[in-house]
Amino acid sequence: MEESSKTPLTAVDRIADGEGLQMMKAAIPYLPGNLQKSLSIYVKMLEMSNLLSYYNHSVHACSAQAANTEEILNDIRPYCTEEQRQSLDHAMNLVGAFKMYQELQKIS
Known about the structure:
Layout: H1 11-17, H2 21-27, H3 33-57, H4 61-64, H5 69-76, H6 82-107
Helix pairs in contact: 1-3
């Protein structure tokens, strides 16, 4: 698969990945079956540990920000099916049209 066509990691997945757990995950299919299971569980445990550590010890600037509808829709778009993307695009177009309408109202 081309690098550019891969689905990007979400912010939470980047936190959980910590110090490169994606490399360990990539190696799992090449291990014997019994080791695959053990390493998969171990990686998930490390991910949970990374998440718990992050949320217990850091200040979350993102949580203080007001949600921007366009930003949210753009962030979830890569994880949608083609049909869902079309619906999101339609919603984004409606949001844009509404913003333009509001700006025109200010001018009038």
